[in-house]
Amino acid sequence: MRSILALLAASLLASSASATNSPSSSSECSSTPAVICIPIKTGVLVGADVNGTRRNGAFEGSIDQNGNPILDLGFYGETSPAQQFTFNACASTYTGWDPVETGSNTTFYGTLHPAKNKAECVKASRWPYEHYTTALTSAACSTADDASQLPQTWSLSVTRNATGAHDYSLTFIGARKSDPSTGSQYGFTAYWAAERPVNALVPFLFYAPPSQVVDGQFETGTVYKFSLV
């Protein structure tokens, strides 16, 4: 039986999408319909490596060479301060993703934003993605139901752990459901690199087959997986 959470989210997303695309909605003034989102989970953004080392992810002043704010996992020898982020499940005809439930596990698709700033999303700083240079930035969320959703599309997988509590795992999607499978997926590998300060640990996007991640490493960087706790 589907969980109450999944049913609620699916119902709200369906009704919101229907309202957005109806002739009486405000979208009739625009050729591009709007994406409708609802909050699912708010928590501290945490990155963990294969050894269980955990670091908070935060926007705390690190910038890239173009002056854009980028997410980091702490300065040298320290972790970032705990910052709250909110995941929103979104109804997007363009991306085509819907909530999926498998047993007691539910996966939602949508956007991630700093809890204190609903207008900005955590998105790829470069798009289309570029290897070694694409970090995560905080920038204005796009509400247009078109290709502008791709650099800000994430999934949130809700699962039960051994204690019976829920875990909330984040994955960067950056693709449409209808896109052909390539055998590769996005992940994050961290390097000590930032324009200011110079010693911030920055997670960069990579796109590769899972087999290329060996012992928690991709190429020369440590792989981190994000969750909300």
From TrEMBL:
Keywords: Signal. It comes from the Eukaryota. Residues 1-19 form the signal peptide. This is Chitin-binding type-4 domain-containing protein.
